[in-house]
Design goal:
With 334 residues, the chain is α/β, with parallel strands linked by helices. The chain folds into two domains: 46 residues, no CATH class; 270 residues, TIM Barrel (Alpha-Beta Barrel). Helix content is 36%, strand content 20%. The chain has eleven helices and twelve strands. Helix 5 packs parallel to helix 6, helix 7 packs parallel to helix 9 and helix 10 packs parallel to helix 11.
Length: 334
Amino acid sequence: MDSLYDFTFSRLEDSLRDAGIKALHAKEVYRAIYKVSGILVPAVQAWVDQRQPVETTVVRDIASSDGETRKFLLRFADGQEIETVLMGYRGRSTACISSQVGCAMGCVFCATGKMGFTRHLSAGEMVTQIKFLNTHLASEGKEPLRNVVMMGMGEPLHNFKELMTGLEIISDPRGIGIAPSRISISTVGHIPGIQKLAEAGKGYQLSVSLHGASDDERGALIPVNKRWPIADLLEACRAYSEKTERKVLIAWTLIEGANDSDDHATRLAELLKGRQVHVNLIPLNPTEGFDGHPPSEERVLEFQRVIKETAEIPVTVRQRRGIDVGAGCGQLAG
């Protein structure tokens, strides 16, 4: 039986009707689950009691040295474990949520990719990460999550159906209520998923990992480039931008000596010139089994300058968070 966290609002209404309960009680149920516990009429309470929340156990809770990032290892009822990350900024908190146990994409610098793929998470298992983090924030007297990034363990678009169900629940204003514009989906370049996301028209931010300006360079870092090469990926991004009228965030992990030269920056800029994109540079975070290193701060800034001057597109450098506790981009490994 599905957990309480697997129900979109419309499905909740249908399920209540099927149980002989008026659908108007759906608002009370969503409020009780996600906002404020309240007294439900006996028939509704009985329905709720039959569908418990996702069962999770906190295996590990680690805070970064600056206290701004916390990484939680959560175990589900079947024994599988995932990591979820809470990042604090001035006046807001952001959650980095996992969508799979492991990952099938195999990116060579990513700790999750080295794990291989175990299974997809259900919509409820994604929602429970948000619920858990909001409960944690409330215990510290802080405001609920303001932003969500689907950049944790797994390739979100490989788990498209459950992802979209989970995000519908997370963004529903009658429940958790995180606006779609504050939800970002990160993909290694899963073209069928990008196409379906464009058709869905939900307003989520799309972030695409590029990391190489040629198929040979990108393929050495991201094996699935053989299936979804750069030209096809950029065409999918163009179509996404046209359909949604939103820029695509292009993520570029900077690896010293591999993709951080002025030549790399120039070729990347030429690829992206005239496109509706925003480049986000990510100095490499250390992971076991990959001997690459991040470039110097000076090299990062020079790479940024070359792109700006060549393509005249926005380029930012991602703030590094939680690196000392393995909570940074590419470091999650359960």
